[in-house]
C-alpha cells in the first residue's frame, strides 16, 4: 500500500512494507500480551480453553482461503479470458510453461549457479499449484521485459536439471549424438568468423560421405536466444526418421549482433554448402547436395529471408546477369513451423489481406480463422448485427467474381431475375452452411496479434521487445518495403520462383494471419506465373493449377505458438514433428524426380540450362583458405572445413576482441553505411517501383551490453549513420525519437529502473 500512497509503484517499497509488517507483529507476539490487546483478551482466553493449537491453525488457514476465494464463491469473479482459447492438452502445456517461466524468473537473480538451478525448480513446483500467482508473475515480468528475461525463459531447457529430466523422458531416437562443427565463410563474404553449428546424423562419419541430401535448419528463439540444443526433440526425431544429415545453425544473436548479421550468416552457410558440395559438413563433394531449409518462429523468418537472398543472387529470372556471375541454385523446398514473417505489429487488416485469407481455394483451410474474426464483432455486440444482410454477405463470400460477371450480363425481366436470385441464394446458402465459414459482419477485421493478445506463449510485449532488440539501436529500416526483414512483403517476381513450401502453425497463434497472408501471396504469384506460361504455350492448356504443388498450410485447431518445443509435456507435438519429417522426405523425393525427368544431375548442372560452375572442372577465380590444422586432441568437437578437420577452439565471439584474419591482422568492424549495403548484386527496380535486387546489408560486428557496473562503451560498431533530427524538438534540444528509442532499448537491455523484476 505504501507505493500506492506515494504514487510510485516500486519493488523496493513493497519490500519495505513486507519487512515492516513482519517486524511489527513479531515484536508484538514476543513482548506483548499472549491474549492480544485488551479488547480481545477475554475472548482469546475463553477460546484458548476450547480450541487446541491444531484447530486454531487449521481454522485460520481455512478462513484465509475462504476470504481469498470469496468472489469465486459468490459468483463475482471476472470471466476467464483463456477459457475457450486452447484445446485441453495445449492448455495443460501452457500451464506447465507458465509455471516454469515464473519459477525461473523468480530465481534468476540468485548468484550461485547451483543454488539458482535448484531454486528455479523449487519455485516452479510452487507455481504449478499456485497457477494464478504464476500468471500474475509472468504478466508483471512481461510488462518490463529485458533481454535477460527472454534468455532465461527460452534457454531454461538447457539448464542441468531440466536437460537431465528431458533426456530421461525422451525415447532413444538416434544411435549417434549430435556433433559440434564450424562452417567457414565463403571467400567473397565480408565476414571471417566461422559459423558454429551442430550436425545431427544417425550414422558414423564414414557413411556421412555418401549422403546427397542436407537439411539446413535455423532454430528460432526470437532472434535473441536458443541454440540447436534447445530443439533436441525435433532435430533428433528428424535425424532418426529421415536418415539425412541435419545442419542446425547456432547463429549469432541480437542485440550483440543486430539485423542483418544473422541473415547474412545463414546465407553464407548456404553458399558454403553449395560451393563446397557439402564437403564443409563431411560429404564426399562428388555431387551438389539437395538442400531443404527448415526453421521455426524467428528461424523461419531467417529461412525465408535466406531463400529470398538466394533467389536475388541470380537476378529476376534466375539467369546470370553478366558474364561470369554464378547464380546460386535455389533450395529444394522449405518446411516452416509457426513462422514470424512480419515485424510490423498491426492492429487492423486491410481489404487486400482479408481477400487473401478469404481466397476461394483456401477457404476450407482458413475457415476457423475467418470464423474467429467474425466472432470478434459478435462477442462485442451479441444482440445486434448491423451492416450488410447475411444473404448479401453469403453471396459475396461464395462468389466474389459474380459482381464482375454480372456487369456484362444481358438484361432480363424482373420475374425471371427474382426467381433466379431466389434459387441461387437458396443453393448458395445450403452450400455455405456445410462448407463455408460465417461471413465477417463488419468491414473492420482485427489482426490475430490483437485477437490473441492474452496468449500465454507469445504476447505483444514480447514481440515488441524482440523486434527492437533484433533491429538494434543504430538501424532504421523501411518496415513497409524491407522484405528481408518482413518476408511477407516479398515482391511477386521472387515469390513466383519460390520453392515448394510446407507451413504448420497453430490456429490460435498470434502470428497466424501473417502465415496465411504469405501463403496467399505465394499462391497468387504461382497462379499468375502458371497462366502466363499457358498463354505462351509452355504449359498444357487443359492442365489445371494445383496450389499444393507450391504451398501447403496446416492450421492446428486450439494450438498457439511454440508447440514443437513442448514434446515433453504436449503429446501431440511428436505427431507434428513426424509430420514435418514426412514433408522433408517428400521434398527430397520430388527433387530427385525432377532431376530424373530432366536428365540432369546436381553434380553436372545446377540448373537445367546452365552448366554447374561448381563441378570442379572450371578454373577457380579465387584462392581457398584452410580453416584449420589437424590435432591429436580428440576430446574436443571437430571443425569440419572444406579440406581438413580440426578441433573446435574456444569461440572468438565470447571475448570482446575483434575477429582476426588468418594472416594475423585484425578485422575492423564494417560500416553500416547504406551505400555499401549488400554487395552481392546491383539494384534494379520493377516497373511498379519495388526494389527487387538489393545489395546485401552489412551489419555491425558486435554491440556491447552494459557491464556489471552499469557502464556502457561509447564505441559504436562502424561509422555512425547521420540522421536529421525530428521535426519537433524538446526544450532541452534533445531529439524526441532518440529519447524514445533510448528509453525502450535501455529497459530491454537492463539499464535503468524500468528493468526491475517484480
From TrEMBL:
Any single Gene Ontology cellular-component annotation: cytosol
Bias (Basic and acidic residues): 712-723
GO MF annotations in UniProt: sterol ester esterase activity; triacylglycerol lipase activity
Gene3D superfamilies: alpha/beta hydrolase
Keyword Manganese in annotation: no
SUPFAM superfamilies per record: alpha/beta-Hydrolases
Bias (Gly residues): 744-758
Chain intervals for the UniProt region annotation (Disordered): 597-758
One Pfam assignment: Abhydrolase_3
Any one GO biological process: triglyceride catabolic process
Sequence ranges of Polar residues compositional bias: 647-658, 665-688
Alpha/beta hydrolase fold-3 domain boundaries: 220-385, 443-526
Keywords: Hydrolase
Protein name: Alpha/beta-hydrolase
Amino acid at each position: 500500500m505504501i507505493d500506492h500512497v506515494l504514487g510510485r509503484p516500486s519493488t523496493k517499497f513493497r519490500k519495505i512494507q513486507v519487512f515492516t509488517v513482519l517486524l511489527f507483529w513479531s515484536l508484538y507476539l514476543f513482548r506483548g500480551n499472549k491474549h492480544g490487546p485488551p479488547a480481545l483478551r477475554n475472548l482469546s482466553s475463553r477460546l484458548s480453553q476450547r480450541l487446541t493449537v491444531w484447530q486454531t491453525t487449521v481454522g485460520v488457514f481455512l478462513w484465509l482461503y475462504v476470504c481469498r476465494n470469496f468472489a469465486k464463491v459468490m459468483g463475482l469473479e471476472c470471466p476467464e479470458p483463456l477459457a475457450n482459447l486452447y484445446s485441453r492438452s495445449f492448455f495443460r502445456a501452457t500451464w506447465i510453461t507458465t509455471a516454469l517461466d515464473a519459477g525461473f524468473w523468480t530465481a534468476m537473480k540468485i548468484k550461485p549457479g547451483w543454488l539458482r538451478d535448484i531454486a528455479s525448480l523449487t519455485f516452479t513446483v510452487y507455481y504449478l499449484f499456485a497457477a494464478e500467482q504464476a500468471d500474475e508473475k509472468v504478466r508483471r515480468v512481461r510488462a518490463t521485459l529485458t533481454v535477460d528475461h527472454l534468455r532465461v525463459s527460452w534457454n531454461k531447457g538447457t539448464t542441468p536439471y531440466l536437460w537431465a529430466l528431458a533426456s530421461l523422458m525422451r525415447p532413444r531416437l538416434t544411435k549417434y549424438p549430435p556433433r559440434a562443427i564450424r562452417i567457414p565463410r565463403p571467400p567473397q563474404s565480408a565476414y571471417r568468423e566461422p559459423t558454429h553449428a551442430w550436425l545431427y546424423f544417425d550414422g558414423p562419419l564414414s557413411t556421412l560421405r555418401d549422403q546427397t541430401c542436407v537439411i539446413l535448419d535455423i532454430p528460432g528463439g526470437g532472434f535473441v536466444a536458443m541454440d540447436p540444443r534447445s530443439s533436441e526433440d525435433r532435430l533428433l526425431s528428424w535425424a532418426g526418421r529421415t536418415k539425412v544429415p541435419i545442419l542446425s545453425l547456432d547463429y549469432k544473436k541480437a542485440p550483440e549482433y543486430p539485423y542483418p548479421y544473422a541473415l547474412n550468416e545463414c546465407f553464407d552457410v548456404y553458399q558454403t554448402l553449395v560451393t563446397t558440395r557439402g564437403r564443409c559438413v563431411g560429404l564426399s563433394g562428388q555431387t551438389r547436395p539437395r538442400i531443404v531449409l527448415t526453421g521455426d518462429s524467428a528461424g523461419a523468418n531467417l529461412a525465408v529471408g535466406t531463400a529470398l537472398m538466394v533467389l536475388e543472387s541470380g537476378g529476376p529470372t534466375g539467369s546470370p546477369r553478366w558474364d561470369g556471375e554464378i547464380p546460386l541454385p535455389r533450395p529444394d523446398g522449405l518446411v516452416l513451423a509457426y513462422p514470424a514473417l512480419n515485424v510490423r505489429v498491426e492492429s487492423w487488416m486491410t481489404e487486400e489481406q482479408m481477400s487473401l485469407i478469404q481466397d476461394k481455394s483456401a477457404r476450407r483451410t482458413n475457415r476457423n480463422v475467418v470464423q474467429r474474426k467474425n466472432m470478434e464483432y459478435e462477442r462485442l455486440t451479441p444482440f445486434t448485427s448491423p451492416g450488410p444482410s447475411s444473404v448479401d454477405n453469403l453471396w459475396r463470400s461464395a462468389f466474389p467474381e459474380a459482381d464482375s460477371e454480372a456487369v456484362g450480363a444481358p438484361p432480363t425481366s424482373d420475374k425471371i431475375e427474382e426467381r433466379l436470385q431466389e434459387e441461387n441464394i437458396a443453393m448458395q446458402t445450403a452450400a455455405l452452411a456445410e462448407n463455408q465459414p460465417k461471413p465477417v459482419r463488419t468491414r473492420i477485421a482485427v489482426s490475430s496479434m490483437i485477437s490473441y493478445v492474452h496468449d500465454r506463449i507469445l504476447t505483444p510485449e514480447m514481440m515488441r521487445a524482440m523486434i527492437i532488440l533484433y533491429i538494434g539501436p543504430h538501424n532504421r529500416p523501411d518496415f513497409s518495403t524491407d522484405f528481408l526483414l518482413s518476408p511477407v512483403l516479398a515482391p511477386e517476381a521472387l515469390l513466383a520462383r519460390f520453392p515448394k513450401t510446407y507451413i504448420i502453425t497453430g490456429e490460435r497463434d498470434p502470428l497466424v494471419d501473417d502465415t496465411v497472408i504469405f501463403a496467399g501471396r505465394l499462391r497468387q504469384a504461382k497462379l499468375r506465373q502458371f497462366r502466363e506460361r499457358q498463354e505462351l504455350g509452355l504449359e498444357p492448356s487443359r492442365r489445371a493449377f494445383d496450389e499444393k504443388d507450391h504451398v501447403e498450410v496446416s492450421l492446428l485447431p486450439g494450438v498457439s505458438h511454440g508447440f514443437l518445443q513442448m514434446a515433453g509435456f504436449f503429446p501431440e507435438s511428436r505427431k507434428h514433428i513426424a509430420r514435418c519429417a514426412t514433408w522433408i522426405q517428400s521434398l527430397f523425393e520430388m527433387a530427385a524426380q525432377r532431376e530424373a525427368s530432366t536428365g540432369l544431375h546436381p553434380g553436372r548442372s545446377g540448373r537445367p540450362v546452365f552448366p554447374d560452375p561448381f563441378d570442379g572442372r572450371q578454373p577457380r577465380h579465387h584462392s581457398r583458405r584452410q580453416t584449420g590444422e589437424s590435432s591429436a586432441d580428440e576430446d574436443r568437437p571437430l571443425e569440419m572445413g572444406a579440406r581438413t578437420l580440426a578441433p573446435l577452439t574456444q569461440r572468438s565471439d565470447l571475448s570482446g576482441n575483434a575477429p582476426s584474419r588468418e594472416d594475423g591482422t585484425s578485422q575492423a568492424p564494417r560500416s553500416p553505411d547504406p551505400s555499401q549495403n549488400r554487395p552481392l548484386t546491383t539494384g534494379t527496380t520493377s516497373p511498379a517501383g519495388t526494389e527487387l535486387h538489393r545489395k546485401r546489408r552489412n551489419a555491425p560486428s558486435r554491440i556491447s551490453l552494459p557491464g556489471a557496473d552499469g557502464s556502457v562503451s561509447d564505441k559504436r560498431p562502424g561509422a555512425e549513420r547521420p540522421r536529421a533530427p525530428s521535426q519537433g524538438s524538446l526544450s532541452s534540444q534533445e531529439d524526441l525519437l532518440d529519447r524514445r528509442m533510448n528509453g525502450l532499448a535501455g529497459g530491454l537491455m537492463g539499464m535503468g529502473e524500468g528493468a526491475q523484476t517484480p
